[in-house]
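Reopening this ticket.

The earlier resolution said the output was attached, but the attachment link was broken on my side. Pasting everything inline this time so it's all in one place.
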Amino acid sequence: MPLSDNNIQAWKDEAEAGGVTSGNVSVGWAGATIGPRRITGDLTVGGGGTLVVSGTLWVEGNITISGGGEVHLSPSYGPNSGAIVTDGRVTLSGGSDFAGSGTPGSYPFLITTSACPVAPNCGGNNAISLSGGAGTVALVAQNGNVQINGGSSLKAVTAKQITMTGGATLEYDAGLISDVFSSGPGGSWTVIKGTYIIID
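Inline output:
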């Protein structure tokens, strides 16, 4: 589901309107509810903690979900989906898990503007790296690469380049074709011949 720069900027504006948190934010076992909010540093969820997203998030740094960390949309989203936007890299590992609001048709979209691995300061890392986890989430890295490793599953992915290895699964949900966000665009998709390669 390609998104325009205007779509992404609208989400950033919405997040910032909810307030700004300076520096890094870490969510541990006690959990937290955040949003709408702009975070100027990194966002980390781990230690079995759960981040409940109550409004659009804009993270200027990197996002890391690991160690059984979970990210759920608040029940207030109802049937709508929600956006988490970052300008940095995304690392999902160690049983990380995502879920919608609990109402069918609700999905968290994790969107990065990163052009990694080719942009400066990437250190060879991909824009999104997923290994062992994910769940009900859609990943968007239109300017960068997504690496999905064994034991991972997700509902949708858009990227400049996608690599899936070792039993990774993509289970596209038909509901995503008409997805509705609490704000911003709806969804649509198409497969364009010649834009993908299947590697055995």
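Reporter confirms the inline version is readable. The mean pLDDT is 85. The first strand starts at residue 20 and ends at 21.
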